[in-house]
Amino acid sequence: MHPIRRKRLTIVLFLLAGIAVAVGLTTYALRQNINLFYDPSQIAAGEAPLDVRIRAGGMVEEGSVLRDPESLKVEFKVTDFNASVLVEYTGILPDLFAEGQGVVAMGRMADNGRFVADQVLAKHDENYMPPEVAEALERASAAKLKAGDSSSADTAY
Amino acid sequence: MYPELGQFALILALLLAVLLSVVPLAGSVTGRDNLQAFARPLSAGLFVFVAIAFAILTYAFLIDDFSVAYVANNSNSMLPWYYKFSAVWGGHEGSLLLWILMLAGWTLAVAVFSRRLPSVMIAQVLAVMGMITVGFLLFTILTSNPFDRMLPNVPADGNDLNPLLQDFGLIVHPPMLYMGYVGFSVAFAFAIAALINGKLDAAWARWSRPWTTVAWAFLSLGIALGSWWAYYELGWGGWWFWDPVENASLLPWLSGTALMHSLAVTEKRGVFKSWTVLLAIVTFSLSLLGTFLVRSGVLTSVHAFASDPERGTFLLALLAITIVSSLMLYAVRAPVVHVRSRYGSMSREIFLLLNNVLLVAATLLVLIGTLYPLVLDYLDMGRLSIGEPFFNLTFSPLAVATGLLMGAGVFSRWKKTDGGWLGRKLLWPLAVSLLVTTVLMVVYGGFKPWAFMGCFAAVWVSVATLWDLWDKSASRKGRLYGLKRQSRSYYGMVLGHLGMAITMAGATVVSNYGIERDVRMSPGDTAMVGDYQVEFIEIGDRQGRNFSAQYGTFVVSMDGDAVSILHPEKRQYLVQRSVMTEAGIDAGLFRDVFVAVGERISDDAWAIRLQYKPLVRWLWLGSIFMAAGGFLAIADRRYRVRDKATEKRAATTPEPRGDAAEALS
User: In the structure, what pLDDT confidence band is assigned to residue B61 with cuts at 50, 70 and 90?
Assistant: First the structure.
């Protein structure tokens, strides 16, 4: 082969190899590390898989935060005003975590229907609502409206 | 009245930018020197008017003029003056104005510092810079005017700056980052000008190299500052979250690093030309993509100030126009470029090619991980997130491979390197690195495969780089003379590579051997973190200028000796009613001890986060080395004086020893 062509071939092969490695690693890693979002209604309906790392979110139900006085264990209910799910977490909650605020938790569903969180994310400032949560709330209130229960749907906002 | 002057200055700047993007270009096409000569004065005028607008906005902040909506939304009379100053870029409109100021500044710098360039080239480069400026000035004036007024209902006081941003880190992080982002526009403009001319030669690479290096150095510092700020202010001790916004700044850095290295090959050996041009286009496009991601409201984070669909669309259009038109030009013009040089399959060229492959692979990876969730969401195919494990899993092997290659590449020669010679050369550094890494593993207590790989890569890069310096500085006139004889750009490379090694070592050690504990503590309690004992003494109240705080006191001791007293705080900012955690950090070169106060659990008990962070400072120290290396490289003699003596020497000696390596810088 002509040396210049051979050189070009080498370059192309190198590039292809690099891209192949990148794509291979990416798809492998993606398959294991995608975290899907489920809202409380979906979890109550049993749509969330057991023991797979997922994200769940909604509003922290008023008066639902229970703290263990002896450790850092805390549990609270997350709701979309249609259904709610009990979340367990051990550790420090973010500064902006509060009852009646939007929250997203990462973790796994346990057998007993509880969500065991390993990470809790709250909003960055007063006006920010996690987009997933906003959407979940909208969905839930739309579902309620459809069911003819329009009177209580207003409380969602 | 004066805020309108600011807006007026922006409009005048826009007019000048339009002229700048048309007149010199027309001159270069028609070959009329007098039109080309307009490029420099127009650049200067553009900068002056943008600077006036920026100064007026700054003035509005400093005198608390809340009739300006942007000031009212982002400042407050209680804010200390230095935060009033940095609040100028604390929101969307102002940070965009800073972007434009930087762009105008870079344009002016090109106009001033490229006296030796042919006038056609300079006219075209400045015209391209002018076009970019037109796009961003239009964006500001049409969608994000910082001088909008709230008349006649002037608020009594401002809405305050987001407390997260009331910090030294914010004063310096955005300007540094923008210097880098925007700086890549110069490399881009040079690439476009070269494509228009069809003159992609070594001279072109030589001109655009220092600009690329400076932009890269600033970007390195900017990213490191962001990470440092996240560490002590935002992240509860985390220093990198693979957050889309962080990725947005990492993307141009990765491709910019590739660009810097391929420019070296193009300058020294005249190969990889089309590839280098493509990289220049890609790097600036990634800078624009970053700006789009951060500023359009597609992402929600600390950085995304406003979600206005109009702005997003505008930025997306700007991005599309830039990418499509430059790639079209590339497609049409790039085949004109011919390659004359040859190189063997084992040569510095190949090592640098591999470096580019790895860096581009890393760029793609981060790009996919960042955009995939956004695209899926946009197509309504579900919401998902790609978290840290994905990036850690895929990025680490590439980083280690890059490190291994870097160590070997330092010894390689242009054109042809004998494989056996290289192998023998690498034997000793390899042995030394293995030994040092093993010792490190013992010191940090425990072998972990990834920790070993990361540390080995870091040690290997340092040992090989210093070994090469030792080799090269051998001289009959003594070591000192040999060291002095090396060029500044060679030392730039040495510093840059050592910096990379330092950052790698820091990242590896702190992620593998760091300790993090969340504990429940009452005053009087003690807890251990690593070898350190932390005692909770008390917690009291403290009043700040615009916040009230709970102020903790902790004593850190080791083997009974007090090491330091830390005062972590929980601040309640008065205007926005938000709570911020200020960590107490005992910083050291080899370790940090980090204490942060969480929520109150019961009357006297608090949730406390204790962390032991070995080598965490090295993360940022490395970037200082890298940036210093970049600045040293551009201070090289050959970029300034091409006096006769230098040229004569270059003509008589075929290949000075130092010269072969300096291209890597």
Answer: very high
Q: Strands A84-90 and A73-79: what pairing?
A: antiparallel
Distance separating the N- and C-terminal Cα atoms of chain A: 72
Mean pLDDT, residues A33-58 taken together: 84
Please name which of B288, B297, B301, B287 lies closest in space to residue B244, comparing C-alpha atoms: B301
Please check whether residue B576 touches A, CB under 8 A.
Answer: yes
What is the reported pTM? 0.88
Measured distance CA(B82)–CA(A20) in Å, rounded: 50
B89 neighbors B71 (Cβ within 8 angstroms): no
**B:641-660 residues touching chain A, CB 8 A cutoff:** none
Rounded to the nearest angstrom, the minimum Cα separation between A107 and chain B is 12
Distances (CA, A) of B583 to B521, B544, B596: 16, 16, 5
As to burial, measured by CB atoms within 10 angstroms (0-12 exposed, 13-18 middle, 19+ buried), residue B179 is buried
Residues from chain A contacting residue B353 (CB–CB below 8 Å) = 11, 14
| Domains of chain B, residue spans | 1-161, 515-617, 639-665
Cβ–Cβ contact B194 with A under 8 A: no
The Cα of B637 is separated from the nearest Cα of chain A by a number of Å equal to 33
State how far the Cα of B180 lies from the Cα of B174, in Å rounded to an integer.
10
Beta bridge partners of B543: B548
Element (H, E) at B613: strand B606-614
> What's the CA gap between B44 and B49, in Å, rounded?
9
Helices B2-30 and B92-113, axial angle in degrees (round to 10): 40
CB burial readout B310-346, b (16+ within 10 A) else e: ebbebbeebbeebbeebeebbeebbeebeeeeebbeb
B599/A92 touch (CB, cutoff 8 Å), yes or no: yes
- Closest by CA position to B215, among listed B127, B105, B315, B130: B105
pLDDT of B378 reads 75
Q: Among residues 67-86 of chain A, which lie with CB inside 8 Å of chain B?
A: 67, 69-72
- In this complex, the residue of A11, A55, A125 whose CB is nearest that of residue B385 is A55
| pLDDT tens by residue, A140-149 | 777 766 655 4
Tell me whether residue B493 is exposed, middle or buried, using C-beta atoms within 10 angstroms of its C-beta: 0 to 12, 13 to 18, 19 or more. Answer: buried
B345 Cα distance to chain centroid: 33
